[in-house]
Amino acid sequence: MRSLIGNIATLLLTLTVSSGVAVAGKLSDAQIAHIASTAGELDINAAQQALDKSTNKEVRAFAENMVKDHTAVNDQALALVKKLNVTPEDNATSRSLTKDAAEKLAKLGRLSGAAFDKAYVENEVAYHKTVNSALSTTLIPNASNAELKSFLQTGLKIFRGHEQHAEHLASELH
Fold this sequence. Notes:
The protein has a single domain (4-173), classed as Up-down Bundle (Ferritin). It is built from seven helices and no strands. It has helices at 4-13, 15-18, 29-53, 57-84, 92-109, 113-142, 146-173. The protein is elongated, with a radius of gyration of 16 Å.
């Protein structure tokens, strides 16, 4: 089973090559804002699924943290784009991420118990590795507005913490 994360990784890492989103290899701030917001919403959706399905105390605590942190980051992002008068621009990457995530969440939805917990946490590890890589190699370098760039850098610090937490949790579930 190709994981949700594998597909997100493929989409984000090939962003400037295949999606048509980038113009001459450069993303606009509006496109970056939409991709970042979409990625946050996808992680919130995955965490909400975990809260619906899991009875594992540690998995539930992690999922609650993902909902809290990603909601806060998305709220701050919304305030920033309003301040900067930037309208997040829907794009092929955002649409593909959303479509693929729905399909993968459906697959995770067919799992239960320890199998679900393990698959969810493994997806979170890979997801945060992918998002952190995309932030550091694509989104942050392409952000032209200094405030947006700083916001993304702050998000990267938070999401690196999520990655470490997910890795620790995954090691406990094996």
